[in-house]
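In response to reviewer comment 3 from the previous cycle, which asked for concrete evidence that the modeling workflow produces usable outputs, we include below a single protein chain processed end to end. The sequence was submitted unchanged, and the resulting structure tokens are shown without manual editing.
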Amino acid sequence: MPTKTIAVANQKGGVGKTTTAVNIAACLADSGENVLLVDFDPQANATSGLGFEKTEGASIYEALLGRGGLKEKILRTAYEHLFLVPSEVDLCGAEMELVQFDDYLYRLKHVLEPLRDSAEFDIIIVDCPPSLGILTLNAFAAVEWLLVPLQCEYYPLEGITMVTDLLSQLMQSGVNPDLKLLGVVLTMYDGRTRLSQQVVSEVREHFPKAVFETVIPRATRLAEAPSFGRPIIDYDPYNAGAAAYEVLAQEVLVRLSGMRGDSGSGES
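The workflow returned the following structure tokens.
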């Protein structure tokens, strides 16, 4: 089976983007998939969330500039089947340096191609920066699927509309005609509040085919886990957040396998 590639992205910070990337990657690996998580965010939260320190020269930065390959950057994590390409602050420089290349939108695609061709990994997940800059556009040009975490708070539709509009532009312009919306995952849900309930209802109304059934709850233990460098299924496997991400990972596998034919559409 060809390697599946997913970008986890939202231009707004604080929506559970990296939490979702790390925990879906961990849950997919726990189910037996060989998963590579690429930390493509200079903040390196996915790196620390898996227990690694920020190390100079360890990121994908040099590979993006054509100075070496990606394979030597891959680290084994403490979890079977889960691997990481870490990030560090030098990745900030890529935003400025990549524009010097004629193919600046395709640098990540070129770097990932050998790994995709080798089929060493079943799934590659790219954790994008919380912006729609050069790095995120590189991710969108390099992958097949886009997963968008969306917090259950005010103004959620504005954020998802911006991302889906950009997705359409990249498809129609030919930058990545194969890019599809894997789904929208609602995060930080608090069933005790009317606001969370309203947001879920509104997003499902506007994007009925795109929203995952699983909703990620707001949970203290889920928020604590990254500070201990552990995904929630290791830090507190009986937590509601762990259960939610395990179910979400299975939903992701179903959509990736093509069993749900309408999964790529965000239209009503």
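The longest strand covers residues 180-189. We consider this sufficient to address the reviewer's concern, and the full set will be provided in the supplementary archive.
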